[in-house]
Write a structure and sequence with these properties.
This protein has one domain: Rossmann fold (3-Layer(aba) Sandwich), CATH 3.40.50.9100. The protein is an alpha/beta fold. It has a 5-stranded parallel β-sheet, sandwiched between helices. It is built from 5 helices and 5 strands. The radius of gyration is 14 Å and the shape is globular. The longest helix has 17 residues.
Length: 152
């Protein structure tokens, strides 16, 4: 049985803790705290609970996805960072818990190096949003809210 905690989980992978300082020409000036504050306001307006988790460690992200099986999370938004292109484990974790999610990337991964063009998550995601900066997270939350309203 799921406990009533967050309805939406926002996961951020490696190096996203450095937003605002890391390659601002590619990732913009907004910090991760800025993105989280924007989403917290949007979630409150939509009447959704929201939880945030960032880790530079693949296993910690997998553990957090697995925890959604019991914690009341109904959908997720993930920016897996570089794990997008390498992590079968994250993909398998989402499939194991049957959690709908939207994949978000601040930059347009398809306009970058060829190794960034493949995602291990995209084909099992509700959708993907790339290249729109922090707005991508907001659009993802809008999509998740619509999905949760339909599933209610």
């Amino acid at each position: 049985m799921r406990r009533s905690m967050s309805q939406v989980l926002v996961l951020n992978g490696p190096n996203l803790n450095l937003l605002g300082r890391r390659e601002p020409g590619t990732y913009g000036a907004a910090t991760l705290a800025d993105v989280e504050a924007m989403l917290a306001d949007q979630a409150a307006t939509a009447g959704l609970g929201i939880d945030f988790f960032q880790s530079n460690h693949e296993g910690a992200l997998v553990d957090r996805v697995q925890a959604t099986f019991e914690d009341g999370t109904r959908a997720a938004i993930i920016n897996p960072g570089a794990l997008t292109h390498t992590s079968v484990a994250l993909r398998d974790a989402f499939l194991a818990v049957s959690l709908p999610f939207v994949e978000v990337h601040l930059s347009n991964i398809h306009a970058r190096e060829s190794f960034r063009h493949h995602s291990y998550l995209s084909d099992v995601a509700m959708g993907t949003i790339v290249g729109l900066g922090p707005l991508g997270y907001s659009l993802a939350l809008t999509a998740v809210a619509a999905r949760l309203a339909t599933d209610a």
